[in-house]
Amino acid sequence: MQINLSNLGKRYNYEWIFRNLTYTFESGTSYAILGHNGSGKSTLLTVVAGHNLYSEGEVVYTQDNKIVAPDDAYRHLSLTAPYLELVEEFTLLEMLDFHTRFKPLRKNLSNPDLIDRMRLQRSKNKYVKDFSSGMKQRLKLGLAIYSDTSLLLLDEPTTNLDQEGVAWYQEHVDQNREGRLIIVGSNIQHEYAFCQHHLRISDYHTSPRK
Ligand SMILES: Nc1ncnc2c1ncn2[C@@H]1O[C@H](COP(=O)(O)OP(=O)(O)OP(=O)(O)O)[C@@H](O)[C@H]1O
């Protein structure tokens, strides 16, 4: 997946979050969107994911040299973010069955294989609502990283993870980078250390922002 942003701008009410953003995210490359709290990292990620409307400019998605209609872009992407909820009423096995009906897994992994990779074997019949916050984060990351998508969007990926969880994230994202466009929204170096390019969202502010 390649994404071209042209003069992109997003406004909430009368406040411009970013403006005049022209940038190309190349396929097979990893990018970090950097900026202080409230600078607009999540806003840009949700706009790129098509979950949030932009106010001006253009977003063009290209896959294998063919333009992807914006309404179809969601088929090619996976996103994880603190504000996205899991289905709490499912057990882990039910959650995976549900998710993989819409988003098959990479590398012909089965659902039990993914549970092994997430190191959640002992919790396969546990309800998601009874997971710890770190287990929920590992589940969200596992679903995103291991979905068979060419665009991986990671917003604050190590939220709620301990040191072992951070190492797990780094290992698994590294094993699943090849050929994919990855965009990380973050302020924490260990979340985006693997990214070749950095986009500072404050470069696209129209005035100082709090
Ligand atoms: N739905 C909304 N309506 C109005 N303003 C919003 C909305 N969502 C976000 N904002 C504003 O947009 C700005 C950017 O928020 P955003 O969440 O994108 O920042 P961020 O860089 O991801 O922050 P953080 O590092 O704290 O997660 C903030 O001023 C925020 O208040």
From TrEMBL:
<protein>
    <submittedName>
        <fullName>ATP-binding cassette domain-containing protein</fullName>
    </submittedName>
</protein>
<dbReference type="InterPro" id="IPR017871">
    <property type="entry name" value="ABC_transporter-like_CS"/>
</dbReference>
<dbReference type="Pfam" id="PF00005">
    <property type="entry name" value="ABC_tran"/>
</dbReference>
<dbReference type="GO" id="GO:0005524">
    <property type="term" value="F:ATP binding"/>
</dbReference>
<keyword id="KW-0067">ATP-binding</keyword>
<keyword id="KW-0813">Transport</keyword>
<dbReference type="InterPro" id="IPR003439">
    <property type="entry name" value="ABC_transporter-like_ATP-bd"/>
</dbReference>
<feature type="domain" description="ABC transporter">
    <location>
        <begin position="3"/>
        <end position="210"/>
    </location>
</feature>
<keyword id="KW-0547">Nucleotide-binding</keyword>
<dbReference type="InterPro" id="IPR003593">
    <property type="entry name" value="AAA+_ATPase"/>
</dbReference>
<dbReference type="InterPro" id="IPR027417">
    <property type="entry name" value="P-loop_NTPase"/>
</dbReference>
<dbReference type="InterPro" id="IPR051782">
    <property type="entry name" value="ABC_Transporter_VariousFunc"/>
</dbReference>
